[in-house]
Amino acid sequence: MKGRKPKPAEVREAQGNPGRRPLSSAANDLPGLKSTAPKTLPVAARRIWEDLAPELGRMKLLRSTDFGAFARYCEHLARWVELTKDLRRNGETYVTASAHGTMERIRPAFMVRDRLEARMESLEDRFGLSPMARQQLLQRLAMAPPPAPQPGLFGDDQQPGAAAPDAPAASPPPSPVGLLNRSRLN
Question: Are 75 and 42 within 8 A, CB to CB?
Answer without folding.
Answer: yes
